[in-house]
From TrEMBL:
Residues 5-94 form the Arginyl tRNA synthetase N-terminal domain. Residues 451-582 form the DALR anticodon binding domain. A motif ('HIGH' region) lies at residues 131-141. The gene is argS. Keywords: Aminoacyl-tRNA synthetase, ATP-binding, Cytoplasm, Ligase, Nucleotide-binding, Protein biosynthesis. SUPFAM superfamilies: Anticodon-binding domain of a subclass of class I aminoacyl-tRNA synthetases (SSF47323), Arginyl-tRNA synthetase (ArgRS), N-terminal 'additional' domain (SSF55190), Nucleotidylyl transferase (SSF52374). Gene3D superfamilies: Arginyl tRNA synthetase N-terminal domain, HUPs, Isoleucyl-tRNA Synthetase, Domain 1. Its main location: cytoplasm. It is an enzyme of class 6 (ligase). This is Arginine--tRNA ligase. It comes from Kordiimonas pumila. Belongs to the class-I aminoacyl-tRNA synthetase family. Monomer.
Length: 583
């Protein structure tokens, strides 16, 4: 139950009654009305802007509307006080019994608490990682992988039908280079001294096993053959092997995609030309000459007629070329076809997760999607770099991959859960520092430890409660029957109020495409829990287990179990395992 949605319905109902009574005019549009926590908690539990939203259309002063609405809201069984503030905001304070009832609601729903229908089953395609299949995943891919995966989980929890997709760039010149690098390792597998890896080929020793696998599979068949006899085959073999390695690396991080889409299939099936024809039929394509680039001209630049997309008609800075002088389509041409394919597959809502170095590509891609279909929407989320540190000093790990730090090296040192949580402790477009020492630190300053510790502490308390009260049933079904009216201490009520914000947090974070909000929310909830725990150290009456008082103990167990369920639900969105004990 989203308590804010519940009271939004209460506000709507009272406004409709004012309309029916003739106090407000007919035909008012109420879509902009919100019920949300007030900025200052001392003002109440909830606030609504209804009077301000309706004032202009109703041709009335906001405060006059608020003064009519406030007494009606105060009649609600769960509302204990209402006041009109400022230009017409209405603040409401709810009864403690209402908040107490939310503990039972959470226990009933379990980890499904917070599941929303706001997404209405609308299909969303989230494309992320999509690293070139030319080697292992490096640390630069980690953040985008975690962000994309958590965002997809979040949208699913909010009620969307989500597809996690990986776009395999297996058609460019980098795949030719990969095949040549693999052939070199194939020759090496027969004992040939290949010497220094020639410049321009991939030097990483991750290609050594591939060379041996090719030897095992094909023997000497392609050992001294012309490139034309093996290049096509080795491209396929090498890119497949790299994708297998990438899948394994991603699995280590807990990332598994639903779909893998090959760029090569676009070229082979003529779908790039088909997508360009769609734009041409709508008048978005012309033959022309681009303006020269600003600044110093590249040596190979020359004015020439090209097939161009009118990107400037859709917000881009310049029109964009779709074909090279060779007649081959540009990368942009293939990307247009790929996004058109997504649209044809039923995805009007698309989200691409890219590295920050692709920032200059965003406008053209969004322009193309707008041109292809007016009802399609592309949101591009850019992930900034991750800087690695150890004890505050910039850190470089081994370079077994050739010239970069691998995802596997990071995850194998600190674990998937720690990696994933830390990657979501900053907004995606802000730089993030990853200190190998700090992320393993057991302190309040380490958010992943702090949140996990809260969950583990709840599990520990539940176990100890059974030792104190051997006949106590601590199952969720039994805790539902606890006397929740005993939860009246301000810290207990605050903890419930934070838990009750979880469904709203899911919806707002999903709408903004910002999964990092979940990590922040969990830290705040863990903080409330640990604060109450510490109060029990100073005041025995505030401990979770009260000797000789089974009723209060059971009520508090119900409360902290609801905290654990919300934490577990949030960690599930982030792809992090809730721990039952800390070691």
């Amino acid at each position: 139950m989203n308590v804010f949605t519940h009271f939004r319905a209460v506000v709507d109902e009272q406004l409709q009654e004012l309309v029916d009574a003739g106090s407000l005019p007919q035909g008012l549009v109420m879509t902009g009305i919100a019920v949300e926590p007030p900025r200052d908690a001392s003002h109440g539990d909830m606030a609504t802007n209804a009077a301000l939203v309706l004032a202009k259309a109703a041709r009335m002063k906001p405060r006059d509307i608020a003064d009519m609405l406030a007494p009606r809201l105060e009649q609600n069984e769960y509302v204990t006080a209402v006041d009109v503030a400022g230009p017409g905001f209405i603040n409401m304070r709810l009864s403690v019994s209402f908040w107490q009832s939310q503990v039972a609601a959470i226990l009933r729903e379990g980890k499904a608490y917070g599941d929303s229908t706001v997404g209405a089953g609308i299909p969303v395609n989230v494309e992320y990682v999509s690293a070139n299949p030319t080697g292992p995943m490096h640390v630069g891919h980690v953040r985008g992988a975690v962000f994309g995966d958590a965002l997809a989980n979040l949208l699913s929890k909010a009620g969307h039908k989500v597809t996690k997709e990986y776009y395999i760039n297996d058609a460019g010149s980098q795949i030719d280079t990969l095949a040549r690098s693999a052939h070199l390792r194939y020759r090496e597998a027969f004992g040939e001294d290949i010497g220094e890896i020639p410049e321009g080929l991939y030097p990483g020793d991750y290609l050594v096993p591939l060379g041996h696998a090719l030897k095992e599979k094909y023997g000497e068949k392609y050992l001294n053959k012309d490139e034309s006899e093996w290049l096509l085959l080795f491209k396929e073999e090498a890119s497949n092997a790299m994708m297998d390695m990438i899948r394994d690396d991603l699995k280590l991080l807990g990332v598994e995609h639903d779909e893998f889409f090959s760029e090569r299939t676009l070229h082979e099936s003529n779908r790039i030309a088909d997508a360009v024809d769609v734009l041409r039929q709508q008048g978005h394509i012309y033959e022309g000459v681009l303006e020269p680039p600003k600044g110093k001209l590249p040596d190979d630049w020359e004015p020439r007629e090209q097939t161009l997309f009118r990107a400037t008609d859709f917000g881009d800075d310049v029109d964009r070329a779709l074909q090279k002088s060779s007649g081959d389509y540009t990368y942009f041409g293939a990307d247009i076809a790929y996004h058109y394919d997504k649209y044809v597959r039923g995805y009007k809502t698309m989200i691409d997760v890219w590295g920050a170095d692709h920032g200059g590509y965003v406008k053209r891609m969004q322009s193309a999607v707008k041109a292809l279909a007016s009802d399609a929407d592309l949101d591009v989320k850019l992930c900034q770099l991750v800087r690695l540190f150890r004890n505050g000093e910039p850190f470089k790990m081994s370079k077994r991959a050739g010239n970069f730090i691998t995802l596997r090296e990071v995850v194998e040192e600190v674990g998937s859960d720690v990696t994933r949580f830390i990657m979501l402790t900053r907004k995606n477009d802000a730089p993030l520092d990853f200190d190998f020492a700090k992320v393993m630190e057991q302190s309040k300053d380490n958010p992943v430890f702090y949140v996990q510790y809260a969950h583990a502490r709840v599990c520990s308390v539940l176990a100890k409660a059974v030792e104190a009260f051997p006949n106590l049933d601590t199952s969720d079904g039994s805790l539902l029957n606890a006397d929740l009216s005993l939860l009246s201490h301000p810290s207990e009520v605050t903890m419930i109020q934070v838990c009750a914000q979880w469904p709203r947090m899911v919806e707002s974070a999903a709408e903004a495409h910002e999964p990092h909000r979940i990590a922040f929310f969990l830290y705040d909830l863990a903080s409330e829990f640990h604060t109450f725990w510490n109060k029990g150290n100073d005041d025995q009456s505030l401990r979770f287990i009260i000797e000789g008082d089974e009723a209060t103990t059971k009520a508090r167990l119900a409360l902290i179990r609801s905290v654990a369920l919300v934490i577990a639900s949030g960690l599930e969105v982030l792809g992090v395992t809730p721990l039952k004990e800390m070691r």
